[in-house]
Amino acid sequence: MPFAYDDQNIFAKILRGEIPNDTVLETQHTLAFRDIHPQAPDHVLVIPKGPYATYDHFALAASDEEIVDFTRTLGEVARAVGAQPSEAGGGFRLISNAGEDAVQEVPHMHVHLVAGRPLGRILQPA
Ligand code: 5GP
């Protein structure tokens, strides 16, 4: 059974302005803010403003307008933090944890954008 959306989750509270955040970018449908426990010099969480619990929920239920806005905002965030890949190096990684196996802590869909140091390979052997 898929997640029901819980509007008491911490990101829902951030969206309602009940908890402060360090905003990087905000658009009509998307908010990007710095992770409170950064794993790299730049660690930004990009979230849709709509009530979506997981990436698949968002991808299948959100409007085209929300999805385009979200995707473009991810690109803008990479530029805003100076992480766009170039011949001189740089780059970033996007991660979206969904559900128990991925150890999703906050049940509001989010993509982590991490950058600012060499990130190594994405997965360790189980
Ligand atoms: P997940 O494991 O769900 O993919 O990641 C949730 C992320 O949210 C974690 O990296 C955690 O540090 C971050 N986080 C949890 N609570 C807060 C908060 O109140 N503010 C911010 N900015 N980040 C948070």
Automatic annotation (TrEMBL):
It comes from Meridianimarinicoccus roseus. A motif (Histidine triad motif) lies at residues 108-112. The active site is at 110 (tele-amp-histidine intermediate). This is Histidine triad nucleotide-binding protein. Pfam families: HIT. GO terms for molecular function: catalytic activity. Residues 10-124 form the HIT domain.
